[in-house]
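Database export, one record per block. Field names are fixed; values are copied verbatim from the stored entry.
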Amino acid sequence: MTKIEVIAQTKETGQVNPEELNYEQTLLSGKFAGTCYAKEGYATIRTQPEEKALKRAEGTAKRGHHSVFQHGMVNMEIICPKMIAMLLNSIGVSNTSEKSARYTQMKPDTQEEQRLYQKWHAIIYREIERRYPKRFAEKEADRLAYENARYMLSVFCGTMMVYSLPFRNIFYILDWIEGMQGNLEHMEGTFNARLYKELEFLKEALLGTVGKPLFYDNKNEYFRFLPVQATGEYDDDNMEYYGDVYTAKFLASFAQVAQEQRHRTTRVKINFSGREPGEFGYYIPPILKNSVYEKEWLSDIESIGEVYPQGMLVSVTEQGLFEDFVLKCKERMCGRAQLEIMQVSEQLIGRFVQNQDKLSRANKRRLGQITEEDKPCARCGYVDFTCQEGCSWGKEGALTRLI
């Protein structure tokens, strides 16, 4: 018989003293560690003196057994540049609710970004009205126009998010920040210089949240999301492979990668030197491609290359299990999803179709569920998926839309 008793839960709080937070999380972790040695249940641990739990936590930390410190979650509101949010979101154990650049207006740092943001919002809004008359309500067309105009905004544009992280991993992040800064000190480029500065702000903010570090990452990990900046070396020689496990490589914008990395079951990294802007080019929204506006878009986004706009392309490597890729498709192969990530997902489905002989029988069945006659299908056509959102595109229009 299974029995469950709640022993702790998250509650909203006001301003917390970092020393108090550190003490309470350490105490709690020490109590949880006692479960491994308790002859009876957790009730006996509750009655033990606090000093015993604290001593147990200290000993556990010294021996490198840090998993007990992962039970306690710290829920934070973080105001930071988008690039820092992406770095934090690349940690698989975190949870994020972030201000949406798709559904809200963003506030860039420079007047030129603001000017181009509003300029291209107006142009794209007119193109939506011209290409798709009466399809969208004014509010929806306005949102779609801003979603695409944000490619003009710096990847260091400010954002905010509610971010939850295990107590243990905050100390690991502090280690990884120092490691990355050690490499950035010797790297050229305005991107790397700006990232170094923003990491310093992040480090100070985290120390002001949890107080003195209790332990350090004993496995010498790093921010895998940015291997060049984290290790000083490129990590782009992975061979593409499409089977039950896969490695995919493609170019995508910073904005797309911000969506891509939110899938916790896949591993995403970008190889990007940060030495000079535009080393892989820039993304062009499909609604502007082959139009009178294409050259003007490229001219404008190149003119602000030094702020590293979110429409700048980077080299992406995505790795994982095919069955987890299918889960990603159930989110991204949709008329309501960001168009760029939907199109990248569509391309990857095509590569799996070409390599389906490398899939197990179970995964061939899964591939059949996200395709029709060996062609990618929108998720509203999946036999095991029921859409609760609804859109104006439908199954066919989702894959041919330009916005």
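Remark 1: The radius of gyration is 24 Å.
Remark 2: The chain has three domains: 18-70, 73-101+156-231, 235-277+312-400.
End of record.
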